[in-house]
Write a structure and sequence with these properties.
Length: about 220
C-alpha cells in the first residue's frame, strides 16, 4: 500500500518512513504544504499522514483544498499535543483520524492500518476471501489454512487486490502502489511478480481481464 507522509521535521519524517516501510507500506515524503496539496490531489495514495504545521501552506488549508477538490483519500493528521482546537477543526474539515505529538510509532502504524482497512471495507486485520486467508497486521497469507511464503512485494500485491476486491485493478495502478520512484515500473516486471504469486497460491487465485487488469478470485 502507498502512503504519503507530509512532514517538515526531517527526524520525524525519517522515523515515520522507517516504521511504515517496516510495516509493509510504500512510503513517499514531502516537506511543505504546496507539494503535499499537489501530490495528494494528483496521485493515488492509500493514506496520507499530514502534519498541520507545514510551511508554504498549512496542513489544514491543504486538507480543506483536497476535500473541496474531491480527494477522498484517508487522512491522518498530526498536531501539537495541546492544539485541541486544531484537532477539532481538522476532523470537521474531513480528516479521518488525528494523533497528537509526541507519539509512539507503534500507535501511528496501528492507526494507519486501521484506516486503510476501513477504507477497504475490513473491520479486522484477519480476513478470509474464499480459500485465501489474509492477516494485514502480520503480513501473512494462507490457502486452505496452509501458510504461503511470500516476499514483501508479493504480499503488498495480494493485500492491495484484497482491499480492492470489488473491482478490476489496472496494471498502472498496481505499479504505482508496488514500486518506489527509483524501482522498475514496467508492465513485464508486474507480470513476473504475478506469475510467481500464481505458482505459490495455485491456479485461478488471481484473475486477469485482458485490457483491463487484475482481480482476486479465491473461490476456485
Amino acid at each position: 500500500m502507498r502512503v504519503l507522509v507530509a512532514e517538515d521535521d526531517s527526524r520525524i519524517s525519517g522515523d515515520l518512513g522507517h516504521a511504515l516501510s517496516a510495516a509493509g507500506f510504500r512510503v513517499e515524503h514531502v516537506d511543505n504544504g504546496e507539494d503535499a496539496w499537489f501530490r495528494g490531489g494528483t496521485e493515488r495514495y492509500d493514506l496520507i499522514v499530514l502534519d498541520l504545521g507545514l510551511p508554504r501552506m498549512d496542513g489544514l488549508s491543504v486538507l480543506k483544498r483536497w476535500r473541496r477538490e474531491g480527494c477522498d483519500c484517508p487522512v491522518l493528521i498530526l498536531t501539537a499535543r495541546g492544539a485541541w482546537a486544531e484537532r477539532v477543526e481538522g476532523i470537521d474539515a474531513g480528516a479521518d483520524d488525528y494523533l497528537p505529538k509526541p507519539f509512539r510509532m507503534e500507535e501511528l502504524v496501528a492507526r494507519v492500518r486501521a484506516l486503510i482497512r476501513r477504507a477497504g471495507g475490513y473491520s479486522t486485520p484477519q480476513q478470509t476471501i474464499g480459500r485465501l486467508g489474509l492477516d494485514l497486521n502480520r503480513m501473512t497469507v494462507d490457502v486452505d489454512g496452509i501458510p504461503v511464503a511470500l516476499t514483501p512485494l508479493e504480499f503488498r500485491l495480494i493485500a492491495y487486490l484484497a482491499l480492492h476486491r470489488d473491482r478490476v485493478v489496472p496494471p498502472t495502478e498496481l505499479l504505482e502502489h508496488l514500486y518506489g520512484d527509483n524501482d522498475a515500473r514496467e508492465a513485464n516486471a508486474l507480470e513476473a511478480v504475478i506469475t510467481r504469486i500464481r505458482r505459490k497460491l495455485g491456479p485461478g487465485m488471481i484473475a486477469t481481464r485482458r485490457g483491463f487488469g487484475y482481480g482476486l478470485d479465491a473461490t476456485g
